[in-house]
Amino acid sequence: MCLAIPGKVLQAEEQNGLRVGRVQFGGIIRSVRLDFVPEAVVGDYVMVHVGFAISQVDEAEADRTYEMLREMGALEGELPPNDEGMTQ
Amino acid sequence: MKYLDEYRDSRIARALAWEIASVATKPWVLMEICGGQTHTIMRYGLDELLPSTIELVHGPGCPVCVTPLETIDKAIALALRPDVTLVSYGDMLRVPGSNSDLLRAKAQGGDVRIAYSPVEALKIAHANPNRRVVFLAIGFETTAPANAMAAHQAKREGLTNFSMLVSHVLVPPAIRALLATRENRVQGFIAPGHVCTIMGYQQYEALVRDFAIPIVVGGFEPVDLLEAILMLVKQLERGDGCVENQYVRSVTYKGNFPAQQILKDVFEITDQKWRGIGSIPDSGLRFRPEYAAYDANEIFDLEVITADEPTECISAQVLQGLKKPTDCSAFAIRCTPENPLGAPMVSAEGACAAYYHYRRHAVAS
Amino acid sequence: MSNGIKTITEATCPVPLSARDTILLGHGSGGKLSAELLRDVFLPTFQNAELSRLNDQAMVSVNGVRIAVTTDSFVVKPLFFPGGDIGSLAVYGTVNDLAMGGAQPLFITVALIIEEGLSMDVLRRVVSSLQRAATNAGVQVITGDTKVVEKGKGDGLFINTTGIGLAPDGLGLSADRARPGDVVLLSGPIGEHGIAILAQREGLEFESRIESDSAALHTLTVEMLKASSEIRCMRDPTRGGLSSALNEIATQSNVGIELEESSIPVREEVKGACEMLGLDPLYVANEGKLVAIVEHTVADEVLAAMRRHPLARQAQIIGRVQQKNAGLVMMRTTLGTTRIVDMLAGDQLPRIC
Fold this sequence. Notes:
B: 365 residues; alpha/beta; 16 helices; C: alpha+beta; 2 domains
């Protein structure tokens, strides 16, 4: 469940005592509630579900783990077929 | 889109699948809990990429599918009242109740509106002071904080024409119930990444300790799920049983504190009926007494008669992963998304619906 | 609390909702429910060969002259949106239905159902826009009708247009003509119209404004037909999106269609909006795009002709017609696996799950 997508915070401000931001997803911008991510600032990435940011993307962790994945992917073309014939 | 597209990279996905095939020396049965994860698996055909030794069974993580029949019937009854505006997430509109659904209620003149966010339901209440606005607030732990915030805000703003019909389900008690059944075949779980974004993964430690099975918190994109499966298979091959986190970009051990706090402020734990499964103790959330004025169950006189007829539906076994949708004699014949016999055929994330939409050609041939 | 569950196998399954006794919004969405309505109510009643071909336009011969006729009703809300309004839509939509049959659009009729209380200014704007669109499309509004309904019974304004065109002899474009080996061509990025409308209704903000792609396609189809006569059929994927148009062809021709996901163009903004709302661009409406099934030896020529035209610069080959999985549209995903692109029952709904 729980369709949540990552977006970049372009603007954050207080409106009637509520923290609200403008967040960019690909080519669109949407107003998002930032109540659950009090430390998120402009430039941060947040995961957004039903109009609320539910986490701040840990970019350092994401980049670190993705680097390992990227290396795996780079070698993909050179992988020999295994028992299941799993490679193309 | 950053932090999304790169997790759909086909080379990385295939490399992970290759790695899984290399590491798996025996057959393993794994379950992904969350309907959104089931959706990704079916939509990208991830099970086609996996070696045949890995069997994926699909869990009950579809809050739309497991919302109790009574709740749907109450929502429909409310929608048909001339003074009520019923606001709901889009997913719920086609869910069949005992003899109707919200779309049909709308066709009959009920004021039913879709909201993408609970905030919109509040806006509707402010804009229509003469209407009694009821928000159908369903979801797992992921959605519950946003729903809680709506109630909290309504109370703060002194809204008098707003209430919520609440149905929240919690994941760990459901996993515990599945593991406790005698027929359980699942040897490892992919825990739902967005539920854990809110709650952290501390709660899963008791499960791995009590049942000696590995649990990996997984994300929702193809690379996330394949990486989580690899981590599970590695643990199983080693004979380990611990909690690991694949979805590090969004999930931390302790989870989201402000979100957990609002849940505590607004809701309390209760027993909950899961449609197609039955009642699971301490697996739901209801309003705390301080919020009685916003609880549609309290402020409306809601008496509904729900149907309780046994049918061909094998949803209980599907939701536990004991049977596949394609094992069902009614699948795609008497049971289709337009004419569902049970919960998992209802929402696009239900296992039966996912198989139907993406995979029924394999059944036919 | 509570006595725990003894077994999880007590199923409490819902009663199935059986035969339909009321019309639902989904019956107008272009998906499965619409198809059911045709199959169960209209076709059996109006039995005739031309209707049963279920093309976007009907082709009939009168004293040896082939005439194309089509009719369409426009109920879009909001009435005005980026890239057009109900007036221009009413012209282009009908012109396109004629063009999909290879006909030259000549005349349209305009029938208005206006809700009491609609501003005269709004009506003038719509009618002017309609006339401008007619001029652009080279058609004349030759007759019309106006009705006014009581306040509360009409959603502002509904427009019906009927189009009449001239069909050249020998052209047999029809949805039942696709054959295994044929190629599927798409004229450009999908989902713009549906997302533009949704954005207007829901207040979505885009970095670069998403506009409806509403446009007349008859000059494009003329170029395509000049390039080759081996075009089996053409469809404009409006309500129900690319998926519905292709599913209809697969059903009418009793063939399978396999698409290549990576070749289907989608703009960044449309993609972002769809991701956010949980929508699939394959089901989102288009008003200025067409999909064509062509014999494979002429695919490159037709594609080249399309790309020379301003409305189809981003035209692509997106798939092939095949024998297996007849009646189904399949798609090879970006991961190399295969899945069904199903016909939707009703409208696509945004989801949280």
